[in-house]
Amino acid sequence: MEKTPFFIIASIGNPGLRYAFTRHSVGHQFVSKLAKDLHLPAPTKKQNVTGGLVTIARNSFANVPESPNPQSFMLYQNLNFMNLSGDAFKRFWSTWIPKYRPESSWDTHLVVLHDELDLPIGDVKYRPSTRRTNGHNGLRSMANDLRFHWSDVSIGIGRPLHKEDVAKYVLSNFNNSEKTVLYRDAYPQVLDLVIQILSERSVDVKIP
Length: 208
What we know:
Elements: E1 4-11, H1 26-37, E2 52-57, E3 72-78, H2 85-100, E4 106-116, E5 124-130, H3 137-145, E6 150-156, H4 166-170, H5 176-200
Parallel strand pairs: 1-3, 1-4, 4-6
Antiparallel strand pairs: 2-3, 5-6
Helix pairs in contact: 2-3
């Protein structure tokens, strides 16, 4: 029997309003916008889901065109601080997945959105089925805590002029001109990528 894939489109960042609009949490910002553009409820806390805010789309692609068969996917915002991202995913995988994912019929794929200092604002890079961390604290935490591969969506935030300012920089908000570039250039690439993954039922795709 052919497996029906289940896709978890997730983000890592820092929790709470204090960090909601910082560069480090751009993945969370994009997942919130994905929910709107896919005509889904905003991610919220659910009693049976640990470590994150979620929205679950069952038997529907919302506005995803040309989907050959109905399938399920989830938007998931990791609620741990960035350097503890792996722990939340690990707890989620050990509780929700065994209980709500029938192993005999579903194939689960984790797609993770995160900030990337080594890409300029507006750029996006996609790596399917990887465990590469590229020095990123959130991905390093995932590599330490998880025993499987994930697909990586790196969203460029650029680097500060001085290396010593990195910690302060990632915890600062985007300015207005940066937001314009981010949502004009980067976000459409991410939306198209997610729609392509869901439509083709595969993480082995390329940014259009």
